[in-house]
């Protein structure tokens, strides 16, 4: 091996990769180790499809750590998203970043999740009220605005579902209310996303925003239509049948497969690109979809075993 190879590799890592991409990936690695240690026992004890459900906290916590790190490493850009009527936008950027990091640790270790899940959900619903709803109403024909609104609502619902899944965390009345709200939001969003996949089958699957699947991915339309079918049937089952745990588990498993086999290669390709924007976009799409998978699995975790 050439003696300068390690130096060249380190130079690539620290100078070619964007600072934001490095910080977010580092946060993901650290949180993954913590969450894996906390989840290992639950996964080993679970049987059958419940092993997938046991990954709900891990899938939910990882993206929160990544987005929390992003709030610190890319604060100057993120602060521009803070509503204009709020003072001190840089403070709120750091405050939300710190909250995301704290929430990720709580959810990963399953310590006080009844509070971290509840507060995270409340934060996401405030974002929807302050940013997503005004944006969607201002440009009602823009499908991306409605998809983002449903995404943020789903993420907030996922936090409440994690809080509801904690044994003895809340009274039965509060727990049932959290599950009902979460089920309605997640189910309706899944149906909407399913329809969108039929209209735009070659877009990146899961949360169908505007990024297309990479051209080198085989059977892109088939993946899009199949994702649409699964989202549609799972969403309807979540809304109208008692099989919501089974439906959520199946949808969550499919989304995890998309994260690994579609978004994983796209992330690797993005990190090898020279532009910082491309790298950060790859990171965001990967962990957005992982968070959506965690949201669906949180519903499965909070749902009774009536299947």
Residue-averaged pLDDT, rounded? Answer: 90
End-to-end Cα distance: 57 Å
Total helices: the number is 12
Order of helices and strands: HHHHHHHHHHHH
Please give a structural write-up.
It is a single chain. The chain is globular, with a radius of gyration of 19 Å. The N terminus is likely disordered. It has one domain. The chain has twelve helices and no strands. The chain has 307 residues and is mostly helical.
Q: What does the secondary structure layout of this molecule look like, with pairings?
A:
Elements: H1 5-16, H2 19-45, H3 50-53, H4 56-73, H5 75-78, H6 89-109, H7 113-138, H8 143-165, H9 172-199, H10 220-240, H11 244-271, H12 276-302
Helix pairs in contact: 2-4, 2-6, 2-12, 4-6, 4-12, 6-7, 7-8, 8-9, 8-12, 9-10, 9-12, 10-11, 11-12
Short description:
By secondary structure, the protein is mainly alpha-helical. 78% of the residues lie in helices and 0% in strands.
Question: Key terms for this structure?
Answer:
mainly alpha; 12 helices; about 300 residues; disordered N terminus
